[in-house]
Specification:
single chain; 322 residues; alpha+beta; 60s Ribosomal Protein L30, Chain: A; Phosphoribosyl-aminoimidazole Synthetase, Chain A, domain 2; 2 domains; seven-stranded mixed β-sheet; four-stranded mixed β-sheet; globular
């Protein structure tokens, strides 16, 4: 099969949205935004043996490639609309292509995302995805809106994807009852789209956790010119985590492991009651883990009310190579 036969067989026929005037097949896609809306765009590249194992199940990889980009839209509170895909393949493997498309388009269909274009070329395996979303004007969740006194929250549990990666690398032995859970957390991240939309009128700032809570929260503190105080005993940890590693290692994985794709956000005290109602309708667990305070941008850690110094970051290379 040549490039255009591959595109025709595997990547056409996925433009079911009425706002797609022209999808794949011309020089550009033509898309229609509703009045009084803002366009949100995010691009991410995944490279074999850097962001994923080269022999990773293609169904899981197709899901993951789209999910990590949709997570960026969730962090802005955007509604997913369209996606473009640039795929570089070392060879034509139709079994791999079929599996990748199964995972990719299953998630795209779930969130009503239309594939509107992209590119295909030969070379080392890599995947570049650009997602487009929309949201009402002035409603985007940004990193620079936090205020002193705001609570700091996260969705879900932290560190499970990092635990799943270390299991696959053979660095940590996870008990059999938890193995499938942590592997799924790494290979099948769940973008918090509904939670992001529910936070539009409640949160003062937000982002998704791709590189670890400690580093990602620092982006909010820098953009908002504030300091974050985290209480480590409040970090939400799964049973898989607490059954597998000791407390300090669990905190380290939760803070620096990365690949959680949960949301971290700040909420003023006046909206605290609204928060519980809004996220209850999304079926998402959330946890308050600290607060924003005046001071030099950065993140302070405390354990049982005392300053805590994180141990050497042995997991810094989680995302630089697998």
């Amino acid at each position: 099969m040549n490039e255009f036969e591959i595109i025709k067989q595997y990547f056409t026929g996925h433009c079911g949205r009425k706002d797609v005037i022209m999808g794949p097949g011309d020089d550009c896609a033509l898309l229609q935004l509703p009045p009084n809306t803002t366009l949100a765009v995010s691009t991410d590249t995944l490279v074999a043996n850097v962001h994923f194992f080269a022999d990773m199940d293609p169904v899981a990889l197709g899901h993951r490639a789209l999910a990590v980009n949709l997570s960026d839209l969730a962090a802005m509170g955007a509604d997913p609309c369209w996606v473009s895909l640039a795929l570089t393949l070392p060879e034509v493997n139709e079994t791999w292509l079929k599996g990748f498309c199964e995972g990719f388009f299953e998630l795209a269909e779930y969130y009503n995302v239309a594939l509107v274009g992209g590119d295909m070329t030969k070379g080392p395996l890599s995947i570049t995805v650009t997602v487009h979303g929309s949201l009402p004007e002035g409603k985007a969740l940004r990193r620079n809106g936090a205020k002193a006194g705001d609570g700091i929250y996260v969705t879900g549990t932290l560190g499970d994807a990092a635990l799943g990666l270390q299991q696959q690398l053979g660095n940590i032995t996870v008990a059999e009852p938890h193995q499938a859970f942590v592997r799924t957390k790494f290979e099948h991240p769940h973008p918090r789209i509904l939670a992001g939309q529910a936070l539009r009128d409640i949160a003062s700032s937000a982002l998704d956790l791709s590189d670890g809570l400690l580093g990602d929260l620092a982006h909010i503190t820098t953009a908002s010119d504030l300091r974050a105080q985290l209480e480590l005993e409040l970090l939400p940890l799964s049973k898989a985590m607490t059954d597998t590693v000791k407390q300090e290692q669990a905190w380290q994985l939760a803070l620096t492991g990365g690949d959680d794709y949960e949301l971290c956000f700040t909420v003023p005290e006046m909206h605290r009651g609204q928060l519980e109602t809004a996220l209850a309708h999304c079926g998402v667990k959330f946890t308050r883990i600290g607060r924003m305070v005046a001071g030099e941008a950065g993140v302070e850690l405390t354990a049982d009310g005392k300053p805590y110094q994180l141990a050497a970051r042995s997991w810094d290379h989680f995302r630089s190579g697998v």
